[in-house]
Amino acid sequence: xxxxxxxxxxxxxxxxxxxxxxxxxxxxxxxxxxxxxxxxxxxxxxxxxxxxxxxxxxxxxxxxxxxxxxxxxxxxxxxxxxxxxxxxxxxxxxxxxxxxxxxxxxxxxxxxxxxxxxxxxxxxxxxxxxxxxxxxxxxxxxxxxxxxxxxxxxxxxxxxxxxxxxxxxxxxxxxxxxxxxxxxxxxxxxxxxxxxxxxxxxxxxxxxxxxxxxxxxxxxxxxxxxxxxxxxxxxxxxxxxxxxxxxxxxxxxxxxxxxxxxxxxxxxxxxxxxxxxxxxxxxxxxxxxxxxxxxxxxxxxxxxxxxxxxxxxxxxxxxxxxxxxxxxxxxxxxxxxxxxxxxxxxxxxxxxxxxxxxxxxxxxxxxxxxxxxxxxxxxxxxxxxxxxxxxxxxxxxxxxxxxxxxxxxxxxxxxxxxxxxxxxxxxxxxxxxxxxxxxxxxxxxxxxxxxxxxxxxxxxxxxxxxxxxxxxxxxxxxxxxxxxxxxxxxxxxxxxxxxxxxxxxxxxxxxxxxxxxxxxxxxxxxxxxxxxxxxxxxxxxxxxxxxxxxxxxxxxxxxxxxxxxxxxxxxxxxxxxxxxxxxxxxxxxxxxxxxxxxxxxxxxxxxxxxxxxxxxxxxxxxxxxxxxxxxxxxxxxxxxxxxxxxxxxxxxxxxxxxxxxxxxxx
Length: 666
Ligand code: IVH
Known about the structure:
The chain is of the alpha+beta class. The chain is 36% helix and 20% strand.
């Protein structure tokens, strides 16, 4: 069958619009992207071959228009009115009185926080799109609105009216906004403050190609000439235009009486943060169009509609100061102290600014008027400074060079966003964390020194730093909550034992940033004593395997901090061993186990797996968890597992604990 190009073009356009509708309005893609692209290309090719058949309502023409020099004015035939703010009870009372009726049916809808626009369809074709403007006169944004995929260029279905003027909101959905904001930030472009502003900026572009790249959405909420559809209610009118292909908010519903309105208000309020778009309230409308006509207008607003707002999620307030907080791990966080403001349902008087770069990027200054946002349970955020409220007296924030809590030096390592206090062993803000880490199993292994106990020790002033631990005695401990004589004695013994921990454990226990267990072992092996490690410069530190410039810098800064050195000196005076274990640790390179790979299986009679691992590693060996061709020895104890079978099948040497000990002492 030979089809005329005009016929094929018409069929392609209808099919593409159908897929658009399924994708952008119903959120239910009806074809794979590749098939969509194929149809689109076929249409483009046919139109290129037959330019006389190109028409502005073709899907290929969404981004067709050339940049404008200005946006033309459009006078609204029916003014775009504003709406009164009322709560559910007051609105229902007024309607009942005016209509002398009870149990009134209302159309309840979310109040989308975007931009009001008006779309005119003539003979089912989208011919004019305008912003609200002052309600009487708006701007012609037809070319921009054509790029919005959820706006049909042609209406579909039966009973398309000769002329239809639809009103609704253009929004950026939150997820799309976040992506857009991130892309702008990555490109070094100005970041939008919120979805509403981003939508407004996108809609009023002079170049529709720019708008086309912004993922705008449209939701219809009214028809300016409902008589064209001859229906008796607002809700049926919206159902009808939805059937013609126009998107409407899925949350809209018909409810009855003040109770119905209030229930709707609460339900949407509860869902608010999970909705795909920002809303600032709900809108109530008398559903019967005849009743709407009877109610008429008060000044510039209809008597048959009301907006019931939720607490604002954004407010303006002043930055009184920018303070710096020190976290448990030494991270310095700038925090804006704000003139208290009621936002998102609570009074907010401070908000985190995250880090130094964030303050620079947002250019927030002390004394600025800023927009504060608190959505749902999310912590309050300073969104932006209001530039045109600047007086010139605002002051820029500078990250302090010394920790505001303990006065130690502050460092910011290359590649890190966060500045940190280097006085990890000394800083009161980091005290609890430092002690817990110091005492942890893989560090000094002081059993019994858990979080609750550390809290008490620090809060009662019994321990000022990790060095203070060694001044504790049984009597001091026994008076603490949940602490009997026996547990107190156990802790004192564990403390005593810990004095003989390996140098690697001690180095790890100091909690130097970027020095984990493996690096601590390498450092202990390389330097053999804490004194030598402390004396090393960054060049020498970088000689150690896996220690690069960042780690070297971190170590050097830690030991350069006098406060830390004092604590280390106190540790030494308390009897904490700060030298390597002698032969095994210092001269590990010469041991028979050095450079060999061990796998442990089963229970060893005289040592725990942890101990065996520590000994092997101290002797320069490695412990791996699975047997492979690279394994040198499998150390098998009682009830060995499948690893033993695998060792045998691979021909790997299997040894017992005695043989291991012998090898380690060689
Ligand atoms: S009805 C005569 N319904 O709120 C009443 N407005 O209207 C016409 N808005 O900026 C408006 N969601 O863009 C109506 N479901 C909704 C709405 C809504 C948001 C906006 C509208 C305008 C403001 C006042």
